[in-house]
Amino acid sequence: MAMKSVQIVTFEGEFTQAMKPFLEVSGLRSTDYHIVAIIGCQSTGKSTLLNMLFGTDFDTLDAYKGRNQTTKGIHLGANLECKTLIIDIEGTDSQIRGDDGAAFEHMSALFALACADVLMVNMWTSEIGRYKAASVGLLKTIFEVNLRLFTLEKKKRILFVLRDFNDQQNNLTVLKQQMSRTLEELWSKIKKPESYILLSVFDCFDFEFKTVSVKDFKPEEFKADIDDLRDRFHNEERMDYLFRYKDTDIPLDGIPLYFQEIWTVIGNDKDLNIPSQKEMLANLRCNEIKFEALRLFTTAIEPTAKLIGRCTVPDFSTIFSEKIKEALAEYDKNGSAYYETIYLSIKNELNQLLLDQIKDLFHSQMRCVVTESTKYFKDTLESKINKGQAIENFSATISEVEQLTLSLFAVNAQASIIENSGWETAEYEAELMKWIEEKKSVEKEKQLELLQKEVKSALSGKFSFNANKILENPFDDNMWSKLKEFQASTMQELESRYTNVLKGLDFSEDQIASKLAEIRRECYSTLKSKATKYCNGLVDQLTKKFNQLFLKNENGIPREWKNAPIDEIFAQSKDTVLATLESLRLFRIVCEWDTDHGEHDYEELIGEEQFHLIMESFLKDAEMAYKEAVHIKEFGYARNKVNGWYLLLIIILGWNEFMWLLKSPIILYPLLFVFSIVALMFSMGMGAVPKFILKQALSKVPFF
Q: Is 46 annotated as a binding residue?
């Protein structure tokens, strides 16, 4: 819960009397309260931040009316819920105050540090490293004067609030390190009492950092950051509670006089008095000349600045170094006649401002350099590899492309660094290296995919055709030998290619051996799958081979059973076929085609149960053919011996009926269908079936 704020120091630096009645109705009691103050550049959202954290009503900037000074002087608010007094300080670098505002800035900053338990320094994340924007000058003064004017019985807590933080572009750890180095440098430069000489800045101050996302572009993350920071002020249970050390020991009714005395002490400090007239004039004029040189510089770099971000500017360093020299020369021409100390100090400020103004352009340039380098890497690599086939020297090729890319990056990066700027390109080089490593991994996977496609292609198509051709002739005594030779010739070529590609991908010997084992298993599985598929129709193949051996002689002529030794022929034919069946019980191929192996190394191709089913089916067909042959030998020739006059009599007497059959489609078509089925069965080696049926039918007719 907050109440309406009041102004305690006017724009002119006068301490008002509004504080006492404000505190009387604030609801705060005794010493049970905390004090928070905030400093920072103008228009950085200090008042808005305090309003969101503590529910105060400090005046805030209206962006539609342009950037101007909203908070003038020093204002005070209160929040009863977290028992806190909130001090809102006028922004530094005010355009309204101009160059005369330095004394007030220093006074107000010292006042804030002296009074507050927690001093918040509000700054843009992108401004870290800039003298003014990061309040470096104020911090230096705060360190130095605070040691002389106030007793550091307890550490003062300074909370840096980094606004518009983007975790995709900013690294909090790096920013902390940068700020810590700046604080240590400032501490080392100030004059310290003997009791503080051996102490570091971190022994005297407690620094903390809090990031806040961009309000307009990441509203949800911004709200979450504000909520978290608010909780750190309100929630006493948190380990990072900002008021965990009780610093206030002045009763609330003594606060107005205490604040007024502090303001008076700071205002009377000699180091903060108005400089001499000569120094004052030099300060005023050198700053005017500085801003004029900065304006001319901004105009001069505008054409080049428009190009940056679209493409890499090859002579970036040359162009901007020349423009900086021109701006400094313009400053020297008009400012060198003034007080030397101030002239040189402001010249250093100008040089830093010039570098700060183009630093973002440098980062845009480096992003373009990285983008151009990645494009060069991709284009060069694509020109050196075959998209449809894996290459055998991949590592050497991609290493060559990597070196060419890094060389290109180094040349462009060096041409982008301005002398004595302190800028680094290591961050972008690391980004490029990370991208290259990821790209190398992706391309390596693509090479493996292409190689796998080659394996699949090699084990299909022509491979399948040749394997099937060998397996279709199981009665060839050399079938397994031919299949082994086929496997060996295929794998020798395939493994040689596979090994060369994997070596080119920097695979170890063990990894290569593992990959070769995979393709050997794949080849083995493919061959076994085809053999298994063939065995599914093995009964018909065995029967067909048996009929070929049993029903026909060596010349392929059907046998005449009248004088043939049926039992002997049957036994020979059956044994030949069963020997083939026996040879197919095991798959006489192994994965390790190039090693010696015995019978125990073979896997089962036809299971025991399947083997007996196939043999029973085959023997049943063979016995049927055998019985038919015996029947023909014993009865067939006698029955088929018909007198010629009998056939002539049938033709004469049945001529009309025969012609009637030919002219009647109802009778003719079924007969043709039956004859077609019978012919098909004979062509498939199953002629014994229709013969047997016909023989059984004729046996029922008496005169046959």
A: yes
Of the ranges 65-79, 81-95, 120-134, 210-224, the best mean pLDDT one: 210-224
pLDDT tens for 264-281 read 777 776 443 323 444 655
Q: Is residue 634 part of a domain?
A: no
Q: What is the span of the domain harbouring residue 160?
A: 6-274
Q: How far is CA 492 from CA 98, 484, 594, in A?
A: 85, 12, 9
Q: CA geometry: angle at 233 spanning 227 and 234, to 5°?
A: 85
Helix axes 688-698, 665-683, angle to 10 degrees: 130
Distance, in Å, from the CA atom of 149 to the CA atom of 141, rounded to the nearest integer, reads: 12
Res. 617: pLDDT tops 60: yes
The count of structural domains within the chain is 4
108 is annotated as contributing to ligand binding:
no
Q: Shortest CA distance to 260 belongs to which of 5, 39, 19?
A: 19
Provide the pLDDT for residue 358: 86
The answer on whether 286 is annotated among ligand-binding residues is no
User: Residue 529, annotated ligand binder?
Assistant: no
Structure tokens at 74: 């020093």
Same domain, 431 and 571: no
pLDDT digit string, tens, across residues 359-384: 888 888 888 988 888 898 888 888 88
Tell me if 40 is assigned to a ligand binding site. yes
Q: How far apart are CA 602 and CA 309, in angstroms?
A: 68
364 assigned binding-site residue:
no
- What is the pLDDT, as a whole number, of residue 277? 41
What is the β-pairing status of strands 118-124 and 34-40?
parallel
519 burial level (CB within 10 Å; 0-12, 13-18, 19+): buried
- Assess whether 422 and 562 both reside in one domain: no
Does 45 show up as a binding residue in the annotation?
A: yes
Say if residue 88 is in the same domain as residue 194.
yes
Q: How many helices (H) and strands (E) does the chain have?
A: 24, 9
Could you report the per-residue pLDDT of 196-210, keeping only the tens digit for each?
788 888 888 888 999
Question: What is the per-residue pLDDT across 145-180, written as a single tens digit (0 to 9) for each?
Answer: 666 655 555 677 889 998 888 887 888 888 888 888
Strands, E, within 545-660: which ranges? 586-587, 603-604
Pairing of strands 586-587, 603-604: antiparallel
pLDDT above 90 covers what percent of the chain?
4
Residue 324 exposed, middle or buried by CB count within 10 Å (0-12, 13-18, 19+): buried
Rounded distance between C-alpha atoms, residue 465 and residue 595, angstroms: 26
pLDDT at residue 65 greater than cutoff 60: no
Binding site annotation covers 43?
Answer: yes
Same domain, 236 and 105: yes
Given a contact cutoff of 8 angstroms between Cβ atoms, the answer to whether 451 and 501 are in contact is yes
The verdict on 465 and 574 lying in the same domain is: yes
